[in-house]
Predict the 3D structure of the following.
Amino acid sequence: MTVSYTLEVANARFGGFSKLLFRWKGSIYRLLYKELLVFCGVYLFFSVLYRFMLTPKQQDVFERIALYCDQFTNTSFIPVLFVLGFYVTMAFNRWWGQYTSFPLPDNLMMVVSGNVHGGDERGRLLRRTLMRYANLSSVLILRSISTRVLKRFPTLEHVVEAGFMTTTELKLFESLHSDFNKYWMPLTWFSNLASRAREEGRVRDDIALRLLMDELNNYRAKCSLLFHYDWISIPLVYTQVVTIAVYSYFAFCVIGRQFLNPLKGYKDHKLDMYVPVFTLLQFFFYAGWLKVGELIINPFGEDDDDFETNQLIDRNIQVSMLAVDDMYQNLAPIVKDKLWAQRYFSIPYTLSTATETLKPPFKGSTFDMRMSAEDLEYHPPMDAPGNKQCLHFKGSLSDGLDRLLQRGKGILQGRSLPSLVDISSHLNEEDDNGAPLKNNINSMNQKEQEKAFTEVIVEQTL
């Protein structure tokens, strides 16, 4: 059964993950404790052998072997981290892909309920049969890949007994000879029955029939993808390489991480602690990582965290029949909603969520950004033909500064900054008519004065 702890980590708090360390079901302790006991037993055997059973001369030989093994376990001679990390990442992506490929009938049942019409017994029979065929296909594919489902439906007679298939349909299913998996046959029945419903007028147009076929193909594609996930595994050689790398690494650690006699002055052997604490932690992490890859490489088994395929089958057949039968044209009376007469309204909050109303709504990261008047000045493109001209304030200098001051006050009241662009006015009528500018030197001086006054007013306003 899938172990869920989502509610316990809904809010980040002190020691939030620490509470999860004391769980047993679905934990790494339950998954790894046997391997850890074997490693500790082998390490203890060599420790007792070295300390109490070997002669001094044999101890010297053992110490040389231990130093030699330790030399390679403390280096990257065996690339455990690289091969193990890449393997688990690949296994996790495969696990997530299998989860997203699980065939759910929700989209298909909505299309059937909305496009296969008829409140009589014939219409009800068509809708229920269509969804039964879809669910039958998923049961057949899950029998092929999930040990839980196969134990629940060991034979096709059990499928007939469960109501997914009739006796006549079983005979048709078995009469078609094929060397391959025939999970697609109920979907073929679905498409033929949908075409018949179109001929009878239960499906009113070809667009609705096309919609049915599209959703059916999406459903079939997921069933096919699950089958191919089960067929094509991660290459066996890679799984073997990872397993050999981890096991051989700790096989050398069993001898190389022994505590040697500190009186002989070996490097890094000044203490005799008997229990290799950090080696055990390293085994726990690396071997646990390998166990995680072993757990998620096939989520259709019977481990604690494998997919609940039987419950999904129960859920799918129940909701699909409810959608196309009990809920068909079963609508509540259409009435005006509670907010019908209100143009502007807000949805009430409870006392525990009332503080959220004090937060202003997010309108964009640049909504409250401030800009100087210099940044708002418009400059024509460098390659624009003709003389480059700067935009003037319309009217006198005092009128332009008054409008700019009003615009600055608008910023403080929460208005949008892009409205400042409107400060720039159109060119003078002389410029619009194409007349040459007069007194260029005086005009440039006036522009510099206007710019200086503008900067002062904007800084005081902001």
In short: Residues 28-53 form the longest helix (26 residues).
